[in-house]
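Dear colleague,

Thank you for sharing your sequence with our group. We've completed the structure prediction you requested, and as agreed, I am returning the results in plain text so they can be pasted directly into your records. Please verify that the sequence below matches your submission; if there's any discrepancy, let me know and we will rerun it promptly.
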Amino acid sequence: MNPLLTRLQPYPFERLRQLFSTVTPNPALRHISLGLGEPKHATPAFIAQAMIDAIVSTPSGLASYPATAGEPQLRAAFTDWLKLRYGLNVNPVTQVLPVNGSREALFALTQTMVDPGPGGPQRNPDQTPVVVCPNPFYQIYEGAALLAGAEPYFVNADPERNFAPDWDRVPEAVWARTQLLMVCSPGNPTGAVMALSEWKKLFDLSERHGFVIASDECYSEIYFRDEPPLGGLQAAAQLGRPDFKNLIALTSLSKRSNVPGMRSGFVAGDAAIMKQFLLYRTYHGSAMSPVVQAASIAAWQDEQHVIENRALYRSKFAQVTPLLAEVLDVALPDAGFYLWAKVKGHDTDFARELFTLYNVTVLPGTYLAREAQGANPGAQRIRMALVADSAECVEAAQRIVQFVKSRT
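Please find the predicted structure tokens below.
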């Protein structure tokens, strides 16, 4: 058995299940979950129809193994979208690859990039490769690093700087061992968007130390400002790095198009890295189904449903955020579909009592972060996923307001 498996921590939702295992929620109220970041808006009918049409019109497609690199039409859909969204000219042959959702890609990319070196888990700690991650973070970053034989290093978000990780506090000795840097913009759970100045700092560090940057951008199409979030490849182009050296951006249809069950996305960036990533994926057996490719092409080629989806979130957040701001330290994020609120007392106590008395699930912030630099940046915070319809989210907010008032 791989001994590195013993280093994995329970996923946040398993910890939540354990937290709630000894309590019974109020039976007079229907359950409302703001815990899981799973899109609940309706999947656009044309995407499902594209999948059906692909099965009906080309049934032989299911009788053949798909190419790991994807069909040329799919890769062209990726690069056309990158041109439309970011104004980028990306090579569809050498600089993009389909992936089965961003989680799969983040894990696989880490296995491709990390060189564990000699000695395995018993090596000298000073020789262990490092994967730097924001803190709080998406837990796949940590798990992927550990299973690749690397050590995750967590960089705490600074609430005084819009939850930007404080990269300046990372010691030079850590950067020297860093092989991969994970960034998430818009961030999960904070919703913060990285500015061009932050990208410049990271590109300079990458140039100096040679590490790769993986930019997780799966929330990029749900935003609340007039200007869409800056993407990693876009930042590179603006800073005179059109070859995207040591940079890979990852995106997905799950949030953009409300198709989490399709497991479809793509990665784009440095052609030299993409060549090695394709080699890894060929052995990994992670080719995308032909019918999913057909539906993905249809989704990436249409922006109207994305605009409509974004409008639903904007309306919902406009209703919910002011309600919660009456009793919690919370504000409209830059982007994403989470509210990251500060609460009084311990976040796990808050979540358990809210579930027990008002049958609403929220995720404790400490479950989304690790103790680092003497603090857990998720402490006294909760994440609320506003993924259900507006009426349900408003009702949940109203219950939370009642709950908080009852505690004071």
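Summary note from our side: The domain at 46-302 is CATH 3.40.640.10 (Aspartate Aminotransferase; domain 2).

Kind regards,
the structure core
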